[in-house]
Each structure stands twice: as C-alpha cells, then as structure tokens.
Design brief:
The complex is a heterodimer of chains A (289) and B (244). Chain A has one domain: ABC transporter involved in vitamin B12 uptake, BtuC, CATH 1.10.3470. Helix content of chain A is 74%, strand content 2%. Chain A contains eleven helices and two strands, in the order ααααββααααααα. In chain A, strands 1-2 form a two-stranded antiparallel ribbon. In chain A, a hairpin with a 2-residue loop joins β1 and β2. The N and C termini of chain A lie far apart (48 Å). Chain B is of the alpha/beta class. Chain B has a domain of 166 residues: 3-Layer(aba) Sandwich (Rossmann fold). Chain B is built from ten helices and ten strands. In chain B, strands 6-7-8-3-9-10 form a six-stranded mixed β-sheet, sandwiched between helices. In chain B, α3 packs parallel to α6 and α6 packs parallel to α7. At the A-B interface, α6 and α7 of A face α2 and α3 of B.
Chain lengths: 289, 244
C-alpha cells in the first residue's frame, strides 16, 4: 500500500473516531452550558450504550431493537442521575456538583462491572464486515455508520438549539439563568433535558462504536477524558468548537498511531492539545473571557 | 384592590438580612414606586416577590393567593413578570427569539396565532424592535435593550410588572423614552411596581410610592405627598433645606 493510500485510511479512521470524541464533547458542552458543570460521567454513557446493546442483543433481541433500547435506557439513566444525584446539590458550588459526577461515574462503572464482568465485548456490525474498497485499501462499513450517525446527531442537536422552543429555552438558561426563570422557564427541567440529551447522544456513539472498537466497562473514562479535552481544545461552551476539537483530536491520534507509534498516539494528541491551550487558552473557537 | 401585598417580609442573601420586615402593596391598575438609596433593599423586594431570593419570614400575596415560596416559573404563569436591572436580554439570541421566550410561560395556553398577534403588538409599541427583529439582542443600544426587556416581559401578558431601574445607565433622552413607555403601560391595564433611582421622574408617573431605608419602609404615600415631603426632597431630590 502506498503512503497516500495509507494516509487516506488514517484520515478516515481519525475522522470517524474524532466525530465520536466530538459527540461526547458536544454532550459535555450541552450540560456545561445548562449547569456550568463538567459531567465526568459522560464517558460512562458511551460505555453503557455499548454494553447494554451487547447484552440486549445477546439476550436474543434484534440488533436494531437492542440499539434503540440501549439509547433509551441510557437516556433514562442520565435523567435518573439528575433527579437522584444532581438536584440535591444544585445550589452548592460547581465543584461539589463536579465531584458528584465523578462519584456517579465510579458507581456506573462499578455497576456495569457487576452486571457484565470486566471483559471486552463486541457487537455485530450493522451491515456486515466486508470492507468497502477504497484505493488500495478498504474501509470497514461500520466506520461509515459511526461517522454517519455522529454527523447526523450533530446536525440534529444543532437543529434542536436553533429551531425548537425547548432548545432556545436551554440557550436562554445558559445565557442568563435568572432572566430565563423570569420568562417562566423551569431551570430544573432544562438541566434534566440537558442530561437526557447528552446521555442519548453519547449512548448512540457507544452503540455505533462497539462493533469496531470493542467495549469494556472501564472504557468510559477514556471517552470522558477525550471528550473533555476535545471540548476544551475547541473552546469550552461552544458546541461547534466541541465537534472541531473532537475531529482534531481524532485525526492527531489516528495519524500518530499510523505514522509514528501506536503506543505514543494518545501522548502525542495530548501534547498537541496542551500546545493549543498554551497558545490559545480560550480554545480554537472559544471567545476570550 | 391590592394585586400584590407583602406582609412583614424578611429575606436576604446568605446570612445577610437585606429585608427586615417589609410591608407594602401595589393596587390594581396603578404604578407604585419603590424608592430608596443604593443597598436599601429595593431589588431584593422584587426578587423576593419573584421567588429568586428565599423568603425567611412574612408572606407575599398575589391576586388574593398566598404565594410565599412559590417557584419563579409558577409565579410567572400566574401573571407576574419582572424586568431585571439592565434588561438582561439574551444577547446571543435574536430580538424575535427574545420576545418569543417572553411568551414561554403561555405554551399550551395560548395559540401560535395569539402569540404572533402579541409579537405584532410589541413591534407596534416599540417600532425599533420590528426593524431589529432578526438581529442579535446584544447588538442593540442600552435603551433599545431596555425596551426589548420590557416587551419580552409583556409577552407573558402579566397582570403585574416589576421594573428594576429601567432608566439606569441610559442617556437622558433614552431614559425619558423608557419612562414614557412605562407610564403608557397603565393604559393597557398592567399594574406596575417600579424601582427607580430617578426619584423625581418616578414620582411623576407613579400613583403611590414607598421609601425604603436599610431594608425597611420608612415612608409611604401618594406620589404627590411624597413629592411634597420634606424628607424625600432633602434626601433624594437635592433641594437642601429649601423653604424651611
């Protein structure tokens, strides 16, 4: 395979992986904008999505139904998390809430391990494993599913915030909480909606990913960190920036994996991210505060 | 008949008691002015009424119902609206979206057509909003933002409008225009509780007023009585010892 063909492969892998990071980052952004808090359980939503889809499929459900149910279950977990763990501390400083989300991530991870054990599992690919030929190499069709679903979700989330009353109400709460409440917007409902929406998008990413990446209960932390990094690199609070940050991170990881060393791929991605933040503390698309 | 009544309301932030037993009322169809120096607790009165500041003691009655401790959203649905200081328009959202969010509490009760009619009505009252309809809220001037904030509050069709310093920070022309609009609200049948640092201007459009000092009502009366009051003149109108 020529270098050009290899590059194409790496870029495609990087873009599809990066879209997933971007999706996690977008979920983090939605919650951050509604609450001012980073949800450190965000990656667990990805993990739970993948793991529950595998479990449901193994229990004999058709693939599509397992996928839909997995997203629904994780959405319920996200809203449950708000009701049980976030509401009781909502009037405390942001740091308390962040610590609650860290605790929640440990509980979700531990719970998943109790339920499903520590081993990596794989979901059947949505449309077979025959690679689609591309130049000298090929691309797994599932990667296209991942990229396509992620892209679709990003567009849907954008539409939600641009055109729907609920989306605008959420933006109002993030712009000025008191003024939004004075418009009759229930800030608590908005926070629940933010967690539900974030959980759903993350779970969808998890379901789509599990056929290509494998999934294990401890995998969530990786996605939380990657998503957080992507959100910060893109400019915290900026949804578009979150997706761009994810793509940058995914591309960096895939290219360094292919061209330099797979062992150092994450270190290189992290190093470049730190460099970006050093040069532009507000992130690539963030506004200076 | 009083639309809003506070009875010995105590409230504050943290350990600080900003209101130390405030009793007042706002009569239906009237403009009631709330006057006082900085830090007297005027804004806290508005926020306590709206449920944005927890009430530590006393009661608030709105439209004959005891509403102490009601969440803000519920009060807004009941017909209470506040224009916070500086307007606090949603800067990233368009003027039109700001106005539509003002009608958020009417979802499920008013039809789309009714809301659109009210939107049209607001653009008639404040022509500048029609021209700026698709612009971002933060591209408006201070006076225009204040108009937008008032229009946004009116979109909820409030029975009682609380206004927090609507003219503060505005150029004299813009300030006069905003207060003229407030006076015009009375013709619409909206009851107004007005906090204003420009005492003379406030008393010119108000029916009655209260003077607040360190969290307590120290003076109350009709606008004419307050304008004539030696204490008010000395403290707020800068006419020192004139005619004594």
């Amino acid at each position: 395979m020529s270098l050009a063909d290899q590059l194409v492969q790496y870029v495609i892998a990087g873009l599809s992986g990066g879209l997933v990071y971007g999706l996690v980052a977008l979920g983090l952004t939605v919650i951050y904008n509604a609450t001012g808090v980073i949800n450190f359980a965000q990656g667990e939503f990805v993990m739970l999505g993948g793991m529950s889809a595998v479990a449901l499929n193994a229990a004999g459900m058709p693939l599509w139904l397992s996928a839909v149910l997995a997203v629904a279950i994780v959405t319920a977990v996200g809203i449950g998390l708000v009701r049980l763990a976030i509401y009781p501390v909502r009037d405390r400083p942001a740091l308390s809430v962040i610590i609650v989300t860290i605790g929640a991530s440990l509980v979700l991870q531990g719970g998943a391990k109790l339920l499903w054990g520590p081993d990596a599992v794989r979901l059947r690919s949505f449309s077979g494993d025959t690679p689609i030929r591309l130049g000298a190499g090929g691309i797994e069709p599932q990667r296209l599913w991942v990229a396509g679903l992620a892209l679709l979700t990003v567009v849907a989330v954008h539409g939600f915030f641009t055109w729907t009353a609920h989306g605008k109400a959420m933006r109002a709460v993030s712009l000025n909480r008191a003024a939004a409440r004075l418009c009759g917007i229930n800030a608590d409902s908005v926070v629940a909606l933010a967690f539900g929406l974030s959980a759903a998008t993350a779970a969808l990413a998890g379901v789509a990913l599990t056929p290509v990446e494998m999934m294990r209960c401890s995998q969530g932390t990786h996605y939380t960190l990657a998503g957080f990094l992507a959100a910060v690199v893109g400019g915290l609070g900026n949804g578009f920036g979150a997706v761009v940050g994810g793509l940058v991170l995914g591309l960096l990881e895939a290219l360094s994996k292919g061209l330099i060393s797979s062992g150092y791929a994450r270190a290189i991605a992290l190093g470049v991210a730190l460099l970006v933040l050093w040069l532009r503390p507000q992130g690539l698309l963030g506004r200076r505060r | 008949m009083s639309l809003l009544r506070l009875s010995s309301v105590r409230a504050g932030y943290g350990g600080l008691q900003a209101l130390r037993g405030v009793s007042l009322h706002a009569s239906e169809g009237e403009i009631t002015a709330l006057l006082g120096a900085n830090g007297a607790g005027k804004t806290t009165v508005l926020n306590a009424v709206c449920g944005l500041v927890p009430i530590a003691g006393g009661d608030v009655f709105f439209a004959g119902e005891r509403v102490t401790g009601y969440p803000t959203e519920r009060l807004v649905r009941m017909g209470l609206a506040q224009v916070p200081e500086g307007g606090k328009v949603f800067g990233e959202l368009s003027v039109r979206d700001n106005l539509l969010l003002g009608a958020y509490s009417r979802r499920g009760r008013s039809s789309r057509a009714e809301v659109r009619d009210d939107l049209e009505e607001m653009c008639r009252m404040f022509p500048v909003l029609r021209e700026a309809s698709s612009r971002r809220g933060d591209t408006l001037s201070g006076g225009e933002q204040q108009m937008l904030a008032i229009a946004r509050a009116l979109m909820s069709r409030p029975r009682l409008l609380l206004l927090d310093e609507p003219s503060i920070g505005l150029a004299p022309m813009a300030a006069a225009e905003v207060l003229r609009q407030v006076a015009a609200l009375r013709e619409l049948g909206t009851t107004v509780l007005l906090v204003e640092q420009n005492v003379a201007a406030a008393l010119q459009i108000a029916d009655r007023g209260y003077v607040l000092e360190v969290g307590q009502v120290v003076l109350e009366g009709t606008a004419a009585e307050l304008l004539a009051s030696r204490d008010v003149r000395r403290a707020y109108l800068g006419r020192d010892y004139e005619g004594i």
